[in-house]
Amino acid sequence: MTLAQPLWLLLLLLLPLLFWRRRRQGAQHRLVLLMPDREALRGGISWRVAVRRWLPGMRWIALALLALAMARPQQRWEERKIKADAVDIMLALDISPSMLSRDFDPDRLTVAKQVAADFVENRPYDRLGLVAFSAEAFTQCPLTTDRRIVQQFLRELQVGRLEDGTAVGMGLATAVNRLKDSPSKSKVVILLTDGENNAGYISPLKAAEIAQTLGVRVYTVGIGTNGIVMSPARRNPDGSYEYAPRQMEFNTDLLVEIAAMTGGKFYRAWSEEELQGIYSEIDRLEKTKIEVSVVRHQTDFFHWFIGLAVAFLLLETLLRWTLLRSVTI
Fold this sequence. Notes:
By secondary structure, the chain is α/β, with parallel strands linked by helices. It folds into two domains: 2-77 and 298-328, no CATH class; 87-287, 3-Layer(aba) Sandwich (Rossmann fold), CATH 3.40.50.410. Helices cover 40% and strands 28% of the residues. The protein has helices at residues 14-29, 38-41, 47-52, 55-70, 108-121, 147-156, 168-179, 204-213, 253-262, 272-285, 302-320, and strands at residues 2-3, 32-33, 73-85, 87-94, 127-133, 137-144, 186-193, 216-223, 227-235, 241-248, 266-269, 289-300, 327-328. It has a six-stranded mixed beta sheet, with helices on both faces. The protein has a three-stranded antiparallel beta sheet with strand order 1-3-12. Helix 5 (108-121) runs antiparallel to helix 6 and helix 8 (204-213) packs parallel to helix 9 (253-262). The radius of gyration is 39 Å and the shape is elongated. The model has no long low-confidence stretch (mean pLDDT 84).
């Protein structure tokens, strides 16, 4: 509830002054002859006397209501109509055992999932999906506008669900396949891995050619540091991993070529902060075009205050000249 012209409320400051002036001058200019009734003759206070005391107050209330009416109380709200030229984005995430390497805290995969979830949170108008790959690839989540579903599937990603290995081509091809029938003008794959391609029956460059043909832009992200890193060395029967120091490095030329072929860009993430910056840059590069039209509505309530003021004035006049009538000399 707002007031369109609140300055009119200053009139309320005049009411105490008018009341004081009336009390001071009223008794000096009038003599009133009150006609007794039976209840007064018995020594009690009649209802007319009790009600008469409130007659001036009814007039002040009416004046206050008129001041409020002139301030125009109203209720305002906005109706937003959003038209978004959305981007379809598939996240392709490596879940090979090397993603459990501990050069990130606590490991590469946990950090990659959290940063990707934050990226998803900032894309409210786009359709997003998720592909996981190691030696094979599968669609964890098809394209959807439900960000919470995508984030839930990201949290559920685990190493060990597929055969060990790194099939970059399979991961990319699976993601591109999910985008091939998309009506969106902008189709994007964000592919994150920490190793070289060593598995799969579709080569990474062949998958990149398919993406290029379908107009899919691919952003490739290489995650991890080079050098000696605590990394999974052996898998136990219960599914857990034993860790050992390992020399970690991989050739990023393939990821650079994939990005160049499809009009995307290659990024190297050596730390969590750099990975966050990479997703932030992709977020800026792939901006969703949004048209927002705002329709403002308002409802005025001044007529209610005017109606109440008129009712108080009519009631006061009616009582003064009928049931509570007095003779003034």
